[in-house]
Amino acid sequence: MLIALFTIYFLGGGSGGMLDYIADIEDSVEIIMAEGERQDEALTVLKAMKKKATEHYKKVKQPTKGLEKTFRNHESTAEQIDALWAEHYATLDRYNDDMLDLRFELKEHINREEWEAIFSAN
């Protein structure tokens, strides 16, 4: 049971949520923003966000197997478990930093009124 809970924690319930959210934002950008260079740039940033999220979910799945193996092995040490958690949190920190940077980049291409309209719809 504990292994299943940790697996869900590591996987975050699947990648669908964030990818669906980004797809909804893309739809809003296409509807709200006038076609042109700014819209194209915003969509390019959103595409980069999708790619980053997909890569992140693939990376997060990999340590789950090691975590499961470590928890099943009753001879595992606290240091081994701590190393897996440290790796997980380092990966998560990098992902959050990258997504935050992309959000700031997105904000450079969208004016205040468009931003409010796009994100109030989602």
Report on this structure.
The chain has 122 residues and is mostly helical. The protein has one domain (2-120). The chain has five helices and no strands. It is elongated, with a radius of gyration of 18 Å.
Question: What is the number of independent domains?
Answer: 1
Quote the beta fraction.
under 5%
Instruction: Please report the number of helical segments.
Output: 5
Query: Mean pLDDT score, rounded?
Result: 83
Strand element count: 0
Low-confidence stretches: 1-8
Q: Largest sheet at a glance?
A: none
Helix fraction bin:
over 70%
Order of helices and strands: HHHHH
Output the radius of gyration: 18 Å
Shape: elongated
Distance, first to last CA: 35 Å
SS-based class: mainly alpha
Short description:
The chain is mainly α and 122 residues long. The chain has helices at 2-11, 16-32, 37-72, 78-107, 112-120.
Write the layout of secondary structure elements.
Layout: H1 2-11, H2 16-32, H3 37-72, H4 78-107, H5 112-120
Keywords:
single chain, disordered N terminus, mainly alpha, 5 helices, 122 residues
